[in-house]
Amino acid sequence: MDLSWEEVERYRDRTFRRRASLAVRGATSAMSFIQQVGFCTAFSAHQHLPCLWVAICGRRRPRMPHHTHSDYAIGLTWELKDRLPDERRVFYARLLNGKPSLISLEYLPYFYRVFGPQAGTPRALGLTEQGILDWLGTHPPQPTYQLRLHADFRGRLPKARFEKAMARLQGLLYVMKTETVYEPKFTYYWGLVERAYPGAIRQARRISAEAALARILRKYFETVLCARRRDLLSVFRGIEPPRLDAALRELADARQLVEGVRISGKEGRWYLRRMI
């Protein structure tokens, strides 16, 4: 089976909302978009991922403006990126392609099962990461500056080490932003995922890792239409290649994906969503 890249792009124009008629205009349409795609990046315009900012622009390849502070699309993306997670309407973490991402609550249990503490593969934590978890485990959500001050017995954590540890803990779904505060000064509050979403965690414990990954991949291909193995490993960082290969074989055997598709003008062989 051969496919042209323009056919793929036209499919994604609809699912990624890269048309003016489908563009996100506010919280209601943003929620509709996130629930439709299941998960997306906030700002990062990845070739193989839906993006809230792109959906607000309503264009295929929007350019990041030089003056972001006065740009409508950037301002609305920033507002929704903070507001919707703070209201517990979507989940926010550094997940897809290692970038800030928005996950619908429907798909949160599946992501927690695949990427979270119960993913099945032991994740060794460093002293800084463990110190942050220990502090949050015995305290209510903490503002950034308090967490940096108290999460290490040696005193205030250096900014670079703190940010690296927080990025990893977010990616492993231990820690999440619980609130955005603008006054008296801008800061984030941080807490434990298991405390903020106990229902999703209980649901995740009843799902096998294989079933969770299959559910995520089915939604992904429903949104993007096609992808190569290397694209998937880039998008879903942290998934071991053998686990991904097993999931792709299962979806192909179930006739939900077509293997080995060629796309004119693109390298490699692609997995394509089977249109039933």
Number of strands: 10
CA gyration radius, whole angstroms: 19 Å
Summing up helix and strand content along with how strands pair, one would put the structural category as: alpha+beta
Unreliable stretches: none
**What is the helix fraction of residues, given as a range?**
40-55%
Shape: globular
Order of helices and strands: EHHEHHEEHHEHHEEHHHEHHEE
**Major sheet strand order:** 1-9-10-8
Reported for the largest beta sheet, the result is: 4 strands, mixed
Straight-line N-to-C gap: 15 Å
Put simply, the count of helices is 13
Share of residues in strands: 15-25%
| Average pLDDT figure | 93
Features:
single chain, 276 residues, alpha+beta, 4-stranded mixed sheet, 10 strands
Describe this protein's structure.
With 276 residues, the protein is an alpha+beta fold. The protein is built from 13 helices and 10 strands. The chain has helices spanning 5-15, 27-37, 52-57, 72-86, 108-115, 127-137, 144-150, 159-171, 193-196, 198-205, 209-224, 229-235, 241-253; strands spanning 2-4, 39-41, 90-94, 100-104, 142-143, 175-181, 187-192, 226-227, 257-264, 270-273. The strands form 3 sheets. It has a 4-stranded mixed β-sheet. Strands 2-4-3 form a 3-stranded antiparallel β-sheet. Strand 6 (175-181) and strand 7 form a beta hairpin. Helix 11 (209-224) crosses helix 13 (241-253). The longest helix has 16 residues, at 209-224. The radius of gyration is 19 Å and the shape is globular. The chain starts with a strand and ends with a strand. The model has no long low-confidence stretch (mean pLDDT 93).
